[in-house]
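Action item from last meeting closed. Structure (200 res):
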């Protein structure tokens, strides 16, 4: 019996040693694999001296200048091709679109600024803009009216001289509009159609 007990104890020790050796082997292999991967990645990464210096271009004056646009203000749901999000449809947040936008013609001395309400040129970035930075309550009060907004066209959206890119809203819109970061808005005299003309 004692011989049997001695044999079982010896077998148990051997199993523990085998398990310990396996664990050490796996740990060592993992360590070497991690080290080899790190060395391979370091060899592929370019060094500071091999990277050519980035040419920084001065910011364009278009993105920094203030623009003034005139047009009609609409809720996004009124603009063909625009789809309000679930939150916007619930009335929590809404997007407002300046349509039929033109750059006002310079006024002559003695001429009221509102007298040029329908004259002006269409900006090269189009005639529709998503108006940002004005409180929803203020925009809601001006829906369906002619307005004049001052601010800047978002430089990420192409500016006055570029093409528009997809706006950052989450809705699946067919018509992508540049964003107009408005600093001020005021009502003008004149009327607006119930539905805006298509984007130019």
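Sequence:
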């Amino acid at each position: 019996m004692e011989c049997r007990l001695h044999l079982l104890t010896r077998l148990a020790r051997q199993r523990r040693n085998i398990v310990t050796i396996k664990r050490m082997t796996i740990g060592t292999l993992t360590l070497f694999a991690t080290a080899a991967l790190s060395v391979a990645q370091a060899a592929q990464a370019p060094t500071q001296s091999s990277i050519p210096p980035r040419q920084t271009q001065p910011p364009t004056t278009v993105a920094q200048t203030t623009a003034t646009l005139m047009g009609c203000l609409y809720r996004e749901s009124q603009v063909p091709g625009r789809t309000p999000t679930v939150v916007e449809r619930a009335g929590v947040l809404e997007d407002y679109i300046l349509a039929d936008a033109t750059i006002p013609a310079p006024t002559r001395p003695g001429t009221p600024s509102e007298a040029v309400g329908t004259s002006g040129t269409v900006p090269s970035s189009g005639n529709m803009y998503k108006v940002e930075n004005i409180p929803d309550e203020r925009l809601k009060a001006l829906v369906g009216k002619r307005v004049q907004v001052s601010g800047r066209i978002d430089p990420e959206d192409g500016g006055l001289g570029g093409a528009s890119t997809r706006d950052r809203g989450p809705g699946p819109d067919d018509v992508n509009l540049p964003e107009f970061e408005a600093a001020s808005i005021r009502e003008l005299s004149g009327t607006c159609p119930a539905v805006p003309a298509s984007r130019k």
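Note appended to the action item: The longest strand covers residues 67-75.
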